[in-house]
Amino acid sequence: MTNPVYEYQKVILEQHLDTFGHVNNAVYLTLFEEARWDFITKNGLGLKQIMDSKIGPVLLDLNLTFKSELMNRESITIVSQARAELRNKYVMVLDQKMLKENGKTAATLSLCVGLMDLNARKLISPTKEWLDALGLKEFIEP
Predict the structure, then answer these.
(1) Strand pairing of 122-124 and 91-100?
(2) Are 27 and 116 in contact (CB under 8 A)?
(3) What is the DSSP-derived secondary structure letter of residue 38?
């Protein structure tokens, strides 16, 4: 079973900082989201495809842990990987890690993600297109 790891590079900029001179807590979520959009778009499920199909990913819950502060002009790599097993027939888990240039972990994020039919406004089981966007050829149902 394929379970690829995606990497997204970013440089921390002045606009990411708070009054303490390190990255604001809410900005971490924005940076993690950029990384997710980057890899699903590269895998064929960008905003256009989501809007055309009216089916797209939604976040259901998350656990963000801060490990080491990020400072101005630091280079980071965000590593993202979907778990192959489902929590239930609708919910998948994605793991992300933000790494500093020295390899130290700055933050980790674990997300429960569902796929929503935007017309019906309800969760649906993962489609082939969604699995492809995550790089999964199959998944393990609970």
Answers:
(1) unpaired
(2) no
(3) H
Assess contact for 54 and 119: CB atoms under 8 A.
Answer: yes
CB 96 within 8 A of CB 32: yes
> Do the beta carbons of residue 54 and residue 118 sit within 8 Å?
yes
Domains in the chain: ranges and CATH: 6-129 (3.10.129.10)
Nearest-CA neighbor of 137 among 91, 84, 79, 95? 84
Q: Tell me the residue type at 87.
A: R
pLDDT, tens digit (0-9, with 9 covering 90-100), for 75-102: 999 999 998 888 888 999 999 999 999 9
| Closest by Cα among 33, 30, 31, 40 to 6 | 40
